[in-house]
Specification:
about 75% helix; about 110 residues; 6 helices; mainly alpha
Length: about 110
């Protein structure tokens, strides 16, 4: 979803995910309470209808809170590319080390 919405941003999926989650905390105050409640309700009942996974993903990632978090992450990646490169060059070896220590297969 993020890659299709931000085709010019080339970042590792871990980095996208991390910044997306930070985006939730950065955008939460921008959402109206009603919107936030609607997103919560949609997510709670998303798996109740036996929808194909593609439909579930489409609904989930188009919830306003998810769109806001992804937009924040994509915009941050585009506007802070130098800082992100420095950050990623420090973080990636630590992630690799974590995977190795814990036997995580890539």
């Amino acid at each position: 979803n993020a890659e299709s919405r931000f085709p010019d941003v080339h970042a590792d999926v871990f980095l996208w995910s991390l910044l997306h989650e930070i985006g939730h905390s950065e955008t939460i105050d921008d959402l109206e309470d009603e919107t936030e409640n609607l997103c919560r309700e949609i997510k709670v009942h998303l798996y109740d209808n036996n929808l194909p996974i593609e439909n579930i993903h489409e609904i989930y990632f188009n919830c306003p809170d998810e769109v806001a978090a992804t937009d924040w992450a994509g915009e941050y990646l585009m506007s802070h590319s130098k800082e992100i490169t420095v950050f990623w060059n420090k973080l990636q070896p630590l992630i690799e080390r974590f995977y190795k220590i814990n036997g995580v297969e890539k």
